[in-house]
Amino acid sequence: MRFIDRVDAGRRLAERLGHLRGEHPVVLGLPRGGVPVAFEVAHALGAPLDVVLVRKLGVPYHRELGFGAIGEGGVRVIRDDIVRMSRVDEDDLAEVERAEEAELSRRAVQFREGRERVPLEGRTAIVVDDGIATGATAAAACQVVRAQGAARVVLAVPVAPPDAAAAFRGEVDELVCLSTPAAFSAVGEWYHDFTQTSDEEVVDLLRRSTDEASGDDGGEAHGGPLRLPVDGGAVTLAGDLAMPAGAPGLVVFAHGSGSSRLSPRNRAVARALNDAGLGTLLFDLLTPLEEEDRANVFAVEPLARRLTEVTGWLRRRETVPVCYFGASTGAAAALWAAAEAGDGVAAVVSRGGRPDLAGDRLEEVRAPTLLIVGGHDNVVLDLNRQAAGRLRCENELAVVPLATHLFEEPGALDAVADLARDWFTRHLPTRQSPT
């Protein structure tokens, strides 16, 4: 069994963990790669998501040899046999522990952004990773979780070698592993896309899970991970929906070449739009396998067709107007799809886009269109000026001074978010409160 990516693995794993929903479990992801998998499990089970932070204690002269592990709350799991065998001075071992405690505290603050650790006393804890190789870290995590008071410990992973899986069955209350291939050399070989998970993605997923569970919206806000059918149902694409209560519109993001729904730039803009009360959908226009062929990234017409299909799928479920936010080559797909939709798209914003790739479809776009380009992105700026001259709809060209193509300069992406927010809110009808 191979998985598309960690999202796919998490959703498949969640299906096998449905029997635990009634136990009101806590889902704990091992940073970093285990957290995207755990996010999908927590969402499906309606469970709180947290990280289980573990630091291995390595013998000073042989750090790969662990004499124990530490976790939050002062939890220590020490292997006395290895301590005796190592014949290392106790002061040296204590120094290792102090250094790892400092790193543990730093990562806790970084990942949780000041939130308290989810208490485990008396609860079922589901420890999730993206796979097991040797199993040392997962074993330490399960021991730490048990020491933190969990009444039941479940280890859930998509893939593991048969011997490691067999060893864990006696260490935890329940092991859920989707695949135990005999020919196993590394976890990553069982994923089509095993891109490294960043610290920023871990922070974002924990924040989203907390927001989803907060209930501050009176039950009106909704969203979460989606599987979006395209190509007549032959392909499904991963997406993330966020709909604040009373949102006047929904902005669908079309990412550019070499990017995905996890793009930190698009996610930053999406958060700003959510803060302004707008709904957002970030989704992958291509599957990981399709992205391997770079020609697919520039195939604007099929990308636009998928955007149109996803828009139709959304309209059957959401009652608000739809807008498009396109980046790089995704902007061409957004404009092409807007041309196909006629008056069915409320507004379009392009960030560092290639509207020229939409060709003759530019003249058919009726949605008000804002083209945002960096002042130092000279080639793309010229292409956008030419495209603006071809657009027959209401349009503006906004130049962010000193910004380059990726808007990495201080304040540049904030300027993009502000411009996009103002453009969308200006062209969306104001929702009236019921009288």
What would a concise description of this structure say?
With 435 residues, the protein is α/β, with parallel strands linked by helices. It has helices spanning 6-16, 34-45, 80-86, 90-112, 136-147, 162-168, 199-214, 264-275, 288-291, 294-297, 300-315, 329-341, 378-390, 412-427, and strands at residues 26-29, 49-51, 54-59, 62-71, 75-78, 124-128, 152-159, 174-179, 222-230, 235-243, 250-254, 279-283, 322-327, 348-351, 369-374, 395-400.
Radius of gyration: 24 Å
Count of helical segments?
14
Structural class: alpha/beta
The proportion of residues in beta strands is: 15-25%
Q: Describe the strand arrangement of the main beta sheet, using strand numbers.
A: 9-10-12-11-13-14-15-16
Tell me the helix content. 25-40%
> Sheet bearing the most strands, described?
8 strands, mixed
Shape descriptor: elongated
Q: What is the CA–CA distance across the termini?
A: 55 Å
**Average of the residue pLDDT scores:** 88
Can you tell me the residue ranges where pLDDT is under 50 for at least 5 consecutive residues?
215-219
Question: Oligomerization state of this entry?
Answer: single chain
Number of strands: 16
Order of helices and strands: HEHEEEEHHEHEHEHEEEHEHHHEHEEHEH
Give an overview of the whole structure.
The chain has helices spanning 6-16, 34-45, 80-86, 90-112, 136-147, 162-168, 199-214, 264-275, 288-291, 294-297, 300-315, 329-341, 378-390, 412-427, and strands spanning 26-29, 49-51, 54-59, 62-71, 75-78, 124-128, 152-159, 174-179, 222-230, 235-243, 250-254, 279-283, 322-327, 348-351, 369-374, 395-400. It is α/β, with parallel strands linked by helices. The N and C termini lie far apart (55 Å). Residues 215-219 have low confidence and may be disordered.
